[in-house]
Design brief:
Layout (H helix, E strand, L loop, with lengths): L1 E6 L5 E7 L2 E8 L5 H16 L8 E5 L5 H18 L3 E4 L1 H5 L9 E7 L4 E10 L4 E12 H11 L3 E4 L7 H8 L3 E3 L2 H4 L3 H15 L14 H18 L1
Length: 241
C-alpha cells in the first residue's frame, strides 16, 4: 500500500511517501516560511523525485496535534482536500505518538516535549516493548508547565530520553533537574520527521484501519477561545445584573 503523510504541527514541515511501512521519500523544511507557502511545493518536488503519481496513492495520513493551532489546521485541511479529490481513506495520528519513534528500541522512557508557549510543553511518556516492537503510552498526552513536568519525571527515578522541538532548547533545564538520568536527543533525531509519521500511520492503519473522523487534537483552548470565553462570562454577568 502506497501512502502519503503530512505533519505541520510544529515549525517544521515534514512529509513522507511510504509503502507498507517502508519509507520511500521524505521532505523536511525548518525555515521561516509558513506551512501554507511550503507544503504544496514540497509535495510536488517529493512526488517528482520519487517518480510517484498522486493516482498511485491508496491512503493519506496526517498528524492532527497537539502542536501549533494554525499548523494543525493547515495539515488537516491539506490532507482532507487530497483525500476527497482522490477518494482515499484518511487516517490521523498524534504528534507525540509519532515522535516516540525517535527513541525506537531505547531502554529509557521516551518523553516527547513540544513547545506549547507560556512556559508549557505538550508532552507524554512512552516505553518500547520488545515483544510488539511498539511504544506503550505510560502517561497520556497533556499540556504542563516545564517545571511541573520535570518534577513529575524526577519522582519516577527512571532514565528519560527527551525528543521533540523543545528538547534542545531546554537541555540545560532538563539536566539541572534530572542530572545523568536525562538523555536529550540532538535536533537531527529530535525534530518531527516524515519517517516517524510514516511509521506511526502504518502502525495505526494496521490497528484500526479507516473509519475514524480526523479532527484537530489541541489538548487546550487557543488564546482566541480563552478570550472569547472571558468576554462571554463578562457579558452574561452584565446581563444578569
Amino acid at each position: 500500500m502506497k501512502y502519503l503523510t503530512i505533519d505541520t504541527t510544529t515549525k517544521v514541515s515534514s512529509i513522507a511517501l511510504a509503502e507498507d511501512g517502508k519509507l520511500i521519500a521524505e521532505g523536511f523544511l525548518h525555515t521561516t516560511k509558513t506551512h501554507s507557502e511550503r507544503i504544496i511545493p514540497m509535495l510536488d518536488q517529493l512526488f517528482t523525485a520519487a517518480d510517484w503519481k498522486l493516482s498511485e496513492l491508496e491512503l493519506i495520513g496526517v498528524v492532527r496535534g497537539p502542536g501549533s493551532f494554525t499548523g494543525i489546521r493547515i495539515g488537516i485541511a491539506t490532507a482532507q482536500g487530497l483525500a476527497q479529490v482522490l477518494n482515499l481513506p484518511l487516517i490521523g495520528i498524534l504528534s507525540l505518538d509519532a515522535l516516540a519513534w525517535a527513541g525506537w528500541g531505547r531502554e529509557e522512557d521516551i518523553v516527547p516535549i513540544l513547545d506549547a508557549r507560556k512556559n508549557e510543553w505538550y508532552t507524554a511518556r512512552y516505553c518500547w516493548t520488545k515483544e510488539k516492537e511498539e511504544a506503550e503510552c505510560l502517561t497520556s498526552p497533556q499540556a504542563l508547565t516545564t517545571g511541573e513536568w520535570l518534577e513529575q519525571l524526577k519522582d519516577l527515578n527512571r532514565p528519560i530520553c527527551f525528543v521533540g522541538d523543545a528538547a534542545g532548547k531546554a537541555k540545560q533545564q532538563i539536566e539541572a533537574v534530572l542530572g545523568e538520568r536525562a538523555r536529550v536527543m540532538p535536533d537531527y533525531i529530535s525534530l518531527p520527521r516524515g519517517a516517524y509519521a510514516a511509521r506511526e500511520v502504518w502502525r495505526r492503519w494496521q490497528e484500526v484501519g479507516a473509519g475514524e473522523k480526523v479532527e484537530p487534537y489541541y489538548i487546550r483552548f487557543s488564546e482566541a477561545e480563552v478570550n472569547w470565553a472571558k468576554k462571554e462570562r463578562a457579558r452574561k454577568g452584565e446581563t444578569h445584573e
